[in-house]
Each structure stands twice: as structure tokens, then as C-alpha cells.
Give the backbone structure.
Amino acid sequence: MITAEALHKHYGDKVAVDDLSFEVRPGTVTGFLGPNGAGKSTTMRLMLDLDHGGGVTLFDGRRFSAIRHPAREIGAVLEAKAFHPTRSARDHLRMLAAGSGIPASRADEVLELVGLAEVKRKKPDGFSLGMAQRLGLAQALLGDPPTLILDEPANGLDPHGIHWLRDVLRSLAAEGRTIFVSSHLLSEMSLMADDLVVIGRGAMIYNGDVDGFVREFTRSTVLVRSPHADRLADALRGLGGVTVDLLGGELRVSGVDVDEVGEIAFRHNVMLRELTAETASLEAAFITATEAVEEYVGGVA
Ligand SMILES: Nc1ncnc2c1ncn2[C@@H]1O[C@H](COP(=O)(O)OP(=O)(O)OP(=O)(O)O)[C@@H](O)[C@H]1O
């Protein structure tokens, strides 16, 4: 269990992390989301005592700096490509293993796990970003830690790599580990994460499960196809609090659920060809939740 309490950091007048408190539960993947510059990397650095600021983060009740063998308790990747320039991938991991009292054979195990066994004798400075991400994950897993903190681990991975990463993180969580992972890939996050911490301009926007976030920041809609769509639209508009978009024989309705739409159609003798509850995406919820706090807003060319 990770407990972050009142994390705070400012650079001059600029508040990068603004009194953030949250918990990351074991056995789950918790996604850490926020627009560019929201403060995700700074928060992760604060959590690991790699940056000076306010607040405390406890890992199963202890601060990072109080943990005797951090590699065996917390695996962290904050920056891809932070490797020794002259050692091979394998030697890099063996050296880290030696420093943490981990058997050297574990280096080969984790390289196999992340799919880098074939290139283990190569120097990481020739690695692609995706390969470097895999090596970063190997490094984080070296001590078989119960907690993982990963900043943008999917960055640079190809679609197979992203799929693989999702499976690895999900199965590590299923083993009871605590996994805190930032990403900009929202569709991936919706498949991977159980819980979310969403921040904007350093402050908390949402902390809870993924479904709750989508519910809170989107309106669910009902899609209806009917040869009498205009008649049904009139009946639904008469209800009040209902929004109806009519396009040809298709209606998109919000403010009522599928059962109510079905009932009203029945009462008005309207034949239906389709009646579907549409779930909004995590991306739609993220855009609504964070549009007011976006820092770097581009224009349209
Ligand atoms: N060393 C620094 N000096 C001054 N300001 C900084 C420094 N590091 C970060 N910041 C500012 O703090 C804020 C948070 O940055 P941070 O890198 O934590 O955001 P982020 O959410 O990780 O962004 P991204 O998604 O783009 O990686 C940003 O506005 C950034 O400009």
C-alpha cells in the first residue's frame, strides 16, 4: 500500500504539486493521469524522496529513505535510458543486483521476462526507446519488489510491446503487488488500470475507480434506430431534462436510461431497430475533466 500525504512542490512562484494526497492499493494497477506539465513526474520524484518538497509518502508504512533494500521493495522507472554507458545490459543489471544482495542469475531471469535475452550482451546506449523501456522494467523487477512506480513505461513501445506491458502489469498486480503507473495512452489505461489518480496543475481532480471517473465526467447516451425516430424524439423531448440529437433515423439520447427509452417507445407505438446503451470512453472523461486545467493548449492549423 502506498499512502501519499499532502505532497507539495513549487518552483519559484509556480506550484508544480499542490497538496496531493492519495492511496494506491495492493493488487491493483493504479493509473496516474494528467495533461502535460500537470506534475506527474514531479509527484513520482517526491514519492521516492528524489526531490525536495512538502509531504510524506509511505510504502507499507515506511518512507523510501528508511527502507534498507529499496530494490527489493520498490521498483521504479522514472526515466527510460538512464543506464550505464559502457556496460552491457546484462552487466548493468548484474552490477545493480550485487549492490542490493540479489543473486546475479536474477539478471538473466528479468532480461528473459522483458524480452531482451537476445540482446543482453549489447550496450544499452544503442537501444531503441522501446528496448530501453523494457530494460528499465527489468531493472525495476530485479529485486522482485511488491511495489512498482513507473513513469510512462509505454512510451516508445510498439503495439505488441504495449499489449505485452499491459499483460505483465496486470499479472504483477494479480500477484498482489501495488502498481502506480503514469501514461498518456488513455485507451490502454482503460484496459489496464483498476483505479485512477487524475491531476491537473498539480492538484487532485479525481481519485477512485476507472468506471466512476467515466461516470462522473461524461453523460452516458442511448443510441436508438427507428423508422419513427422523429416521433420518438418528440416524446422524449417532452420528458424534460433529456437531450435528443436526431440524425436521419438515428437518435442519441442522454438524460434517460435504455429501459426508459424502451418503455416510452412501447407506449408511443414506436418500432425500434436498435436500442443500445453507449458507454463513454476514458478519453472523453479525461478531456472533460482536464480541459479547464490544461497548461499547454495548441491551436488548430
Ligand atoms: N526543474 C524545474 N524547474 C522549473 N519548473 C519545473 C521543473 N521541473 C518541472 N517543472 C514544472 O513543474 C510542472 C510539472 O512538471 P512535471 O514534469 O512534473 O509534469 P508532468 O505531468 O510529468 O508532465 P508530462 O506529462 O508533460 O511529462 C510543469 O509546469 C513544469 O514546467
